[in-house]
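Hi R.,

As promised, here are both runs. First protein below:
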Amino acid sequence: MPQAVRFHLNDLPIADVQASPTTTLLDYLREHRRLTGTKEGCAEGDCGACSVVILDPDGPDGATYRAVNACLVLLPMVQGRRVYTVEGLREKTGEYHPAQEAVVAELGSQCGYCTPGVVMAMFEACYRRDLNEPWQLDDQMCGNLCRCTGYRPIRDAARAVAGTCPEDRFSKGLAAPAAVDMKFSREDAGRIYATPTTFEELWTHMAAHPQAKLICGGTDLSLTLTKRFVDLPELIAVEGLPGLRGVTRVEEGWRIGATTTLADLEAFAMQHGPTFTPVLRMVRYFASRQIKNRATVGGNLCNASPIGDLAPVLMCLEGQVVLRGAAGSRRVRLDEFFLGYRQTALAAGEILEAVIVPELPANARAAAYKVSKRRELDISTVAGGFCVEVEDGRVAAARLCFGGMAATTARARHLEAALLGRPWTVAQVEAALPALANDFRPIDDARGSAWYRRTVAENLVRGFVLETRHAAVPNLSPRPSGTVHLEVVS
């Protein structure tokens, strides 16, 4: 008998041996369990109609509930976990959950299609204890699209329940979460899905299946199934491995584990400036809360997209990746990790274990920028991570890193050289900017023309020097709207 996927669904134990491991949680809920409250809208993690909640026992501050896009979660990813859908919120005595009551009270449901996903995003907000900033409520709900334009009452409902932490069965579940065993392996007829929980098991699986793809959060790779309809017969998940999640202090600075989610990284960055202040600014506009609850640091870097948002900021901070294989570990500077379009320095049989980021020097000025068509939940047209070290008013070191300008995230070496030794002033930066034309030959595509990208890249550098005249490491939200205001010079 094949190994069963075992988890709790709305507090009922499930053991399934029939569904394919590449079945999405969304399809499983609707087709196998007839829980049709969870809706399919986009099948790519954009609309939030499929949002469900998973109990995460290992959050940075203890157990927490995580709203996720069920369309991107493969069934073995919930092995050992507790999953809740909108059908599971009502009490046996008939009372609706406060999130459901708030949507009704504030008239937050119109056609109703988006409502179950909205309720589940509010459910997470209900039990969060870290909603201390106004922008965090927008961030919590930005992954839920309402086709009836009912955002004001939805936001009012979210505000009414956020952080209330009612004393109910769900709070009790947070107080005493069950241990999670994610180990899973199903192999037959040339197919495999494995979630090893030791590195020895990982190396064994990788050696036996050298063509297998590694997966963790699934926020990108799952699109191969849901949008391209391409089969993924061999998958090895790394999220069950010990020691790969979390941010810890090390001798060289900070170690960010590869399976650290963006939500965890964001929470850490909010408490640890100034080194992580540029990271916080980038992660804030990275994606929706549902995506950040699943997407990982290692996945974003190993994806090697030229518009991956973490690479520019971690590169400018002199990040190094730790690559680990059965024979041992090695380190590669992040500015040497990307070899070509979607190509990295990972050798066969290696995984990215962690990123090491040194403490930001006292004389450094650093910031990160993302330019996209929408402020929320959009892919970068141009992204920048910039850091200069200034001694006696002059640039002693410069790392200006761009995404969206070439086949890989890369440093603007010519511009950096033109800035070295010069005063860190608007006039001197303006004089050095023509050197940027020698660094990149951007392309025209649907997100922006080559001219637009060149112009934006120059203006981001101008904005950087303007911002760092007043604050060496500009904070997340210089303006109440949460946007970064830049004085654009044409």
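And here is the second one, sequence first, then its structure tokens:
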Amino acid sequence: MPAFRRVLLKLSGEALMGEQQYGIDPRIASQIAREVGEIQQLGVQVAIVIGGGNIFRGVAASTKGMDRAQADYMGMLGTVVNALALQDALEQIGVVTRVLTAIEMRSVAEPFIRRRALRHLEKGRIVIFAAGTGNPYFTTDTAAALRAMEMKAEVILKATKVDGIYTADPVTNPTATKFAEITYLEVLEKQLKVMDATAISLCMDNRLPIIVFNLRTPGNMKRAIMGEPIGSTVRS
């Protein structure tokens, strides 16, 4: 029996790269699609927010002299590319999917309308939210927190390359220890790179738990949905 009925899955753009340095690996998109399809078959309503860092990162470009707002808009367009790739992977395995974008582009995706998105979820469709919040200076982490509130999701599932939240980067620091549970305030005070501070604050204000887990371990998404203790959980 699933522990949650409606979830928001946050994927980084880098998740779609696989071992590549840039872009989208169709095999990784297909693997993610299969896992999402599995949890949908359990009767769980799934919304997805995807980043664009595999294509363009606004913050990085702004440090090299580009106008930050302009760079962020370019990053938002990158998330639309990723959303369409994931939609294709999902529909190839027979999962009905809708892409809703915060920046209107009617020929490729629906405009984001909250009530329409809720209706898609209620009808059992996967909903992918693209173009972040539609505003510069906000990350896709903040977009994930915002859309989770709007959709009344019960949890944010943050899929990463590591198996939870650590005291330091476990890749570069072998002495880093993992938190099974941690509070929002601890995340903010310790400046842990789970999600950005705006997203964490939004989740804290609305008591929305965040489960951080390793996407690269097959079956982890389903384990999180079933309520198994995997990764790290952020709650009050």
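A quick note on the second one: The helical segments are 26-41, 58-63, 68-92, 114-122, 140-150, 184-189, 197-205, 220-225. Let me know what you think.

Best,
J.
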